[in-house]
Amino acid sequence: MNTTVIYNGASTMDNIIGFEFERYSKAMNINMNSDSDVSPVTLSSAWSRVARLLLLASLAVGGSVGNVFMISAVVVEDQLNKRGNAFLVNVALADLLVTGLVIPVSVIVILAGYAESLGACRFEWTLEALCFLVTVLTLATIAAENYARLCLPAERYSENGEKPA
Hints:
The protein is mostly helical. It is 66% helix and 2% strand. Strand 1 (38-39) and strand 2 form a beta hairpin. The longest helix is centred in the C-terminal third of the chain and has 34 residues, at 118-151. The protein is elongated and about 60 Å long. This is 5-hydroxytryptamine receptor 2A. One of its GO terms (cellular component) is plasma membrane.
């Protein structure tokens, strides 16, 4: 037996759920239009400053150490020191900028106690957009390089134009 509940002329489940959520919000005194306590720099104000500081500091340290290890492994190890892995180093460098500059700026803003800093926000968004573009373009270049390596004749892909042995 299929029963459809109609409320104010609406028969979709979304409207019914939306009405129940609105009624629940009013009962719990939750103001859904107040976004003033959420900042992309400092996280939610419901978190304690120490918890936000520890979370961001551990992300910065872990990400930076991991990226430095990855870059140094490609540079030092002969088996990893190949032409295609230079693209992976490029992605790791972009990620290192995020973990080495963007996240520490957020930690500084949290320690200083600023609710929002326009200069820090602009710096972070600019650097994040730049690193995102570098990563996306590098991944597209990796795809093109893999296509060339797999689909083109071996003599066109090799460094000196000779057939590999």
